[in-house]
Amino acid sequence: xxxxxxxxxxxxxxxxxxxxxxxxxxxxxxxxxxxxxxxxxxxxxxxxxxxxxxxxxxxxxxxxxxxxxxxxxxxxxxxxxxxxxxxxxxxxxxxxxxxxxxxxxxxxxxxxxxxxxxxxxxxxxxxxxxxxxxxxxxxxxxxxxxxxxxxxxxxxxxxxxxxxxxxxxxxxxxxxxxxxxxxxxxxxxxxxxxxxxxxxxxxxxxxxxxxxxxxxxxxxxxxxxxxxxxxxxxxxxxxxxxxxxxxxxxxxxxxxxxxxxxxxxxxxxxxxx
Length: 273
Prior knowledge:
Blueprint: E1 4-5, E2 8-11, H1 17-21, H2 57-67, H3 71-75, H4 96-112, H5 123-129, H6 138-147, E3 152-153, E4 159-160, H7 171-177, E5 182-186, H8 200-208, E6 213-217, E7 222-233, E8 236-242, E9 253-257, E10 265-266, E11 268-272
Parallel strand pairs: 2-9, 3-4
Antiparallel strand pairs: 1-2, 5-11, 6-7, 6-10, 7-8, 8-9
């Protein structure tokens, strides 16, 4: 591989990229879609999204770079270029489809309150409460986030223990979770949770508007959070993502390029409680 964007590894179609894409001992958890049992439908785009044409991407990217205002810059706004918060770790649980949404909620919080470390969420609690412990889709955990919210990580009242299936679904927990709900998102609610998706133009539009979004990748059997569309070189774009594996990429960041950018499920988190 050997390609980097600002020190962040690029994952593309080169054979060496698989070393980073499939490290040993990590948890994925996306349930690949069986297209024979569940064929593709026509895509119905989210209402009211005003697309940014590709002819404007360079100008938008240059403006974000000049003002240091993208989600990439906000995430790496800690001392000496460190992250503003430590990225979530699914620790081998097949709960990536919930972690991608958890990261999107935390990034939205960071965008709305720069310099304030967002409350740390526990997506493992979501998978456990849904009894979806063998994998799922980002659309499923986003639905849960709209209806109930996400639990906070911790051992106190109304929290879910870190990296544990042994938390308790109590009234206190549900009341606390309501503080971490998704209130607005771009989601096609006419489609099943496993096939809600955004076009690449919609995904890029959200990126340039600093709207984070979980995305599912069948080829990776994995779900991650899209942060930004980045220009690797003139005419070559990649998708900057935040992963939920410890020690992966640069502070959890990697760039998908080429065919690796194409996702099989996606939505965008516009506003949280």
